[in-house]
Amino acid sequence: MSRRRERDRRLEKMEKEGSGPFVAGPTEGAGDELEGESILERMRSGGAEGLNPVHEQEQEEAHEVTRAKGRAQRVVAGLALVLALLGVTYMLVGSPSYEVTANFANASQLVEGNEVTMNGTAVGKIGSIELGDDGEALVTMSVEEPTAPIVRGTTATVRNTSLSGVANRQVELTPPPSQQAGPEIEDGGTMTQSDTVSAVDLDQIFNTLDAETVANLKKVIRGFEISYEGVGKQAN
Fold this sequence. Notes:
eight-stranded mixed beta sheet; alpha/beta
């Protein structure tokens, strides 16, 4: 309605200024009632022939609005596509992880993929295990948020996840008391051997015994075997 009123005002102005002439005579077959009818009246009734500059301008404005809406829709569709691609990439690649390398005296049968835990909850995984210049095990661990980053004073301990199995180890992170916490370890930083505890296996204990002690231990084990022979079910 506002556009129509604006069009009427423009046509009336054209008539007053003499740029909107009246029809010189009646239109053939239209009757005497059209004689002297103004261009304005015929444009309003739709009976005028030829071009209507106001109507053309309105049509051009409507086309421009349509084109602008089309451009906006294409921009929104493009942004939605980019966000979808980013989401798929995030799910496939994963979020950037925080890593820290712990220096252990030995690898303690750790393998890549073993869990890293804190307070009994998995917070990361072991990414790689390498041999250091002095024979130590350099264990690189990825730690997820919100546990990452860890602070100086945190202890990394190799523990057994169960009594059975060989590669059943995990690294447990123990944070220090708040009053003893140091600065954050930067991404890619290291933990020294003073901050790590390797697992102790039975063969390591036996390696500390001399030959006489090992021989006596064998006798004790054989004695247990003889004393329990035939009474295993009762002993159980």
